[in-house]
Amino acid sequence: MKKIILPFLLLSATAFGQQILLPTVTGNVETTFQYLNEDTLIGAQQPSEKAVLNSYALVNYSNKGFRAGMRVESYLPHVLGYPDRFSGTGIGYRYVGYTHKKVEFTAGNFYEQFGSGMIFRSYEQRQLGIDNAMDGLSVKLTPTEGFTVKAVYGRMRYNFDSRIQNSDGLVRGVDAEIDFNSFLGLLDSSKFKISVGASFVSKFQNANNAQYNMPKNVGSYGGRINMKYERFFLSGEHIIKENDPSFDNGYIFNNGHATLIEAGYSQKGLGIVVQAKSIDNMSYRVDPDAALTDLQINFLPALTKSHTYNLAATLYPYATQPVGEVAFQADVFYKIPKKTKLGGKYGTQINVNFATAYRPVRHTSGVNPLDSNRVTYKTGLFEKSDSLFYRDINIEIKRKLNKKWKVGVKYFHFDYNNDVNVVTKDAAGIISSHIGVIDVQYKISRRHSIRGELQGLFTKQDKGNWATALIEYNISPKFFFAVMDQWNYGNSVKSRQIHYLIGSAGYIMGASRIMVTYGKQREGIFCIGGVCRPVPATNGLTVTFTSSF
Q1: CA-based nearest residue to 165, from 347, 295, 17, 253
Q2: What pLDDT does residue 22 have?
């Protein structure tokens, strides 16, 4: 009877123009399993359990305006490089929420960001072991079109021991933004687009320090503006943080500031973006004694290109310096038109990028560091010193030769201050390196293709020269195979001229993907968006499974 009635009801609703809103369930699963071997040559250790496991399963439910969800996490034990505080199995994220017309609220765990994130960003970056989810209440109001107000209140995730463990301190914030092209129809038909926003965030932590009188409440505030006219855009954001003595800044009572300016131009075949950033004393944590990536309230964008090639991405990655930096970046993309002498039949893509960061100037004249106010220096916006933190110059040229062949040539030059971001024990000061890459792809048939890379890094400092060779074979849309060898052939110590050989294979089944990897991974620093974590050397088997529904 049910098999007859249900189709009849659906057919009747359709016939009368009615819409039936059925509940929706979505989610995803991710599992990383490693079986590790001891390898004294590269310093890889085998844990007592021999195998490690990270696993996540997220389920979201929605029905009309109601929504709820939870994520089950397992660390049995956690993969190497993750925080040691992550262990056991339990619920690591859960929430309920409701959206009705102009009001949206979430109770429980949530992620949120104000502006670029320089004042507040709650987010998850699983590859880095970062999860500073808020646990409390989030409200979003849209009283009229073009005007949005967001408010957050709660504690920040700090630990996971078979359940969520949050910070002792509280984080409170409010953000408002007006899009003048939608707000009251003020600039509805104008080619000039403009929006402005303002944020205020405050933390409360009853910090105890025998030496200093620590503030319990620390506020930060700022504003932003975004403008666009036809092909041009300009945006800026400025944040001020009140005195916030912490482990990061040596428990001084200076105010902090952060400024980010971006401008650009784009049209078909041409894109230009320039950025400038000035930061001083902008480490902002719930707990002033925290370190590494723990309990960070804000996020400081990196003005560096995210490299994907092995040697450029893994040997000397740059981490944003929250204690202070003045940074600049310019990125130019140009496509030489197709069917021209230089562009060829399909056109040629050229990308030139330049990024650099310096230590800011700090004026100590007239400032008494022993003053009870603990204001130890003064500094201004974009006052940079001659002390270089990082410089990156890279050029990329890609061209499709015909229906079968694609070729890419890349060049990178890095000047890296290892005294600021320590990535090696074998060098000090500035490490200069040159990297060359040749990337070739050949399409065998409609479903089969092969791609190869040759990379070389040349430096007189650190461990000497490196070479990387990679070959990939793809059988679309199901299978892929790859073998990569990273070789430190230029190391002055013969026994350290090691081959880091690693192979992988994968299978894709719709929204599911499984990949098996076996081989050696060297010790180093892994970075995403200017945020980094140490990665220990490993030798063994890794199986990764992801699926979404």
Answers
A1: 295
A2: 79
